[in-house]
Amino acid sequence: MSASPCRFAVAFALAAFFLASHAFAEMSVSVTINGPIEEIVALLQHLKDLGIGQTSAPGQGPYKVTITSVATTSKEPEPPALPQPPAEPQPPPKPSLALSDAKVEPAEAKPGASILVAVKVSDPDHLIDTIAATVDGMPGSAELYDNGTHGDAAAGDGVWSGAIALVPQTAPGEHAISIAAFNAGGNPVMKTVENQPPVPLKAETKVAVKP
Length: 211
Description:
Layout lengths: L2 H18 L6 E10 H13 L13 E10 L25 E8 L2 E2 L4 E9 L7 E6 L6 E3 L14 E7 L7 E10 L7 E2 L7 E2 L1 E8 L2
Parallel strand pairs: 1-2, 4-12
Antiparallel strand pairs: 3-5, 5-8, 6-7, 6-9, 9-12, 10-11
């Protein structure tokens, strides 16, 4: 029974029981009251003022009332959750140093023909000054560019390319094309690989030479 809304109702009901109990033989009544402690204390004091809740003295009637109170904790409403600020977007990962997507056009050529070698370059720290391509079986190397000249399609697009003429003595068959990057001092640009010593930054493609 909740103490808060029924405090006086319980008191009046017990009082009515006392008045009616004179018509009956010896009786024993047990009442359990549930509710917050502050409400129970107020109700018990009210019952005490009415003389309820104690064993009757001789001559006041053959009855006895036992009152048991069970206190419950008043639960206050939880405050509304504070709005959380939106998470800040994470910055995009820094591009890594790399030569990728190496290709040659046309993929098949005859000795003496010109081919276009291209490679995509990622150089976030501007370490690269020169890129050169070497065709296996041919002497020397040819530079690649990203300035719109020497066969390069567009300046500053990150794709370095250059035209290479196959010498007439190039033997038929598949030839590897090695592409390497160099710094301003003419030294190979080195790439750091996790848990391994640095290695020269390189890429490779191939061309098929037809007789």
